[in-house]
Amino acid sequence: MMKNLYSFICLAIALNTYSQNIYELDATAPATPVNERLKLGGTNPKGDKISVNNQYVSFNGVPAVPVMGEFHYVRYPKKYWEESIQKMKAGGITVIATYVFWNVHEEQEGKFNWEGDKDLKAFIKLCQKNGMQVIVRIGPFCHGEIRSGGLPDWLLGKPLTIRSNDPLYLKYVERLYTQTAKQLKGLYFKNGGPIIGIQIENEYQHSAAPWGLTYPGQPYDLTASERDISLTQEGVGVSDAKNPYAQLGNDHMKILKNIAVNAGIDVPLYTATGWGNAAIIEGESIPVTAGYAYPFWTPKRDYSPFFLYKDMRKVPDYSPVRYNPADYPAFSAELGSGIMSVYTRRPIAVHKSFDAMINRCLGSGANGIGYYMYHGGSTPQGENSYFSDEAYGLPKISYDFQAPVGEYGQVREGFHRLKLLHFFTQDFGHLLAPMQTALPANAALLKPENITDLRYAARVKDNSGFVFINNFQDDTLMLPQKDIRLKIKTAQQEILIPHKGSFNLDANENFIIPFNLDINGITLQYATAQLLAKNDDESQSYYIFFTPKGIKGQFLFNGDAGAVNTNGATIHKDGENTLVTCNGAVSEFTITANGKPVRILVVSKEQALKAYRVTLNGSRHFIFSDAVVLQNGKNLQLLSDGANSFTLDVYPKINGTPKTAFGTLGKTDGNTVFSSYKITLPAATVNVEGKQATERKWTVSLPQSLPEHVNDAVLTINYKADTAMGFIDGKLVTDEFYKGIPWQIGMRKFLTGKPQEMVFYFRPMQKNASYLVDLQPYPESIPDFGGKKEYLKVENFDVQLQYTTNITF
């Protein structure tokens, strides 16, 4: 009996060993030399310095990975700008990028308007107030799904060639830049202001928008220089064609920069969209790249390459490019965190793709990341036309973009997923930025259609680094990865992760694993947990990690780490090393580094998605909550969608109980590693009722105002139709293209203190609609037409309140 049992155990061990998949990676490549030949950088009156070399940007000599988020001030009400800026900061954005749309500010020739929602100066000042840096994209051509790409209609009627060195065109550009410079005066980095960068032009000699003045059925008349039209494409893509006027394009970009500088627009960083053979300012601008997994400008859904690792410093996305990539840092500054709909195509952006793409970009060598769009909005109406790109068939008002923060400020899944990576780059970007990309042998052979093989890469320097794993691919479903074990070869050793056993990774998930990480003098050989953040001030030192679903946190420290279990961890010696295994959803243990304690907190990814970085009484803390947490000086504003009662878990623990401006707040018996509190606000109601007026029209009576502790009331309409429009007093104020997602409308921006009625007009869906191809992965979104050619059904109108209060510690 014992012999049979022994044989069975041996067989089980052998089978388990055989089932493990060991993935090897050679991380011994020498570092690439750094050069500082770029004519970029600058200082401010305090002596702070921004520097740029061919690999990364530095702030005061410390390498960094900037995180940029696009937000268009003209597409959002001025009275809510600061709240949105604080949301972006809470999401880990460090730089806000915004377009200056020429036609929005100079719709009538010679009459510039910078008032109200067009007040660029006020917007920049609010960014400064909230500690956010800014990159201003000054055009003259912007695109941005704005009418004619931002070029005014009256420009078409002038005897000139746009986007060229035509003297008359440059005269108008000079006037635009001069007027813009007046709004930016005193707000540049050199003045102590937040503006660190300027983008010149957009997709020059690569892409263009159609002129708004066009005729239905006519081929698009693209807003490009006449010499470039034959090589100009719609949207972002690969461009293999050689432009015989490439040098003229480079010269034009340099001329635009000189005009800007002469107008006073002087900043440390100039950027240019460099994908698809677009022109840049050689040696004087950072060429930024893009990645759109769900483009609306392609004829059909297809697999994108943006979830496969590569070395972006050798082969940027949408290559070929016009510049030598080794001479510039890799900045992925226009990543499609969302996408717009056009009438004929309505791609659905899966929010799990957002952090998967950032994982892939960071693993591929990106040292700057940015989003288009990070925050949606509503395109304003002009005096003579809608400013939306009607020729392309976009919604006339909505510019929601399915973004992490929506058209009305809705905080979505992508916001939470992305902030995990943003906190990581803020605290560990100085380590990541100088690291080189190391790829497995099969990396170049993988195709997007391959849903079985593990996708992984590393960033490494001096024998330490991070392993990046991605198990997401757009428009398909990757298979779960089972029994993963990594073998990392460094110049000094081979590291097995984990050194015993293996781990699994679910479909649609991604993961970053540190190896040979220096934690205050102690080497963490590896952790099967992802770094979220750290704190190293005099009063307390701690690191926060999280684990994806199904992965148990395991930490192997070199030598005796002096580890002490605090909550939910098992510690034992492994030879000369220290092995810590985390057993619960929340675990904490302490190591001793250079005689000082360092706390290690490990939470589940589900918990980490609720994390917010805050400053309380001068110290950094993290709050975990279902509510959105915004820092406003010493106050914290809490926004809770639909629930008037919610909890806060504060780490590290604090003394005392915070005070709330509204409702009740008390301590709870939460996890022992947190200070836990429950906030309850009075339940409120805002009643709306949809009434059918005609076969295609419904009405809703809007509230006159919102209760004191309600920040917004979001009207949700569940329907199946083609398009939908909302009117107040006969004026179109909101619209939507159906794509199987409930339509959300934030009502606060429309409330006037007086009774109002919103009238909704729905157009029926056609059985042969071209955009149904985008709904095919979601069959429940496509109605049963039966024997009919069209379909329209409005199911219900619902309201969800966003409760709010302020607390102080």
In summary, what is this structure?
This protein is an alpha+beta fold and 809 residues long. The chain folds into three domains: 17-29 and 436-608, beta-galactosidase, domain 2, CATH 2.102.20; 58-431, Glycosidases (TIM Barrel, Alpha-Beta Barrel); 691-772 and 781-803, Jelly Rolls (Sandwich). The protein starts with a helix and ends with a strand.
Describe the structure.
- The chain folds into three domains: 17-29 and 436-608, beta-galactosidase, domain 2; 58-431, Glycosidases (TIM Barrel), CATH 3.20.20; 691-772 and 781-803, Jelly Rolls.
- The chain contains eleven helices and 51 strands.
- The strands form eleven sheets. The chain has an eight-stranded parallel beta barrel with strand order 6-7-8-9-12-13-14-15. An eight-stranded antiparallel beta sheet has the order 18-19-20-24-25-28-31-30, covered by helices on one side. Strands 36, 37, 39, 44, 47 and 51 form a six-stranded antiparallel beta sheet that branches.
- A hairpin with a 7-residue loop joins β40 (664-667) and β41.
- Mean pLDDT is 95; it is low at 1-18.
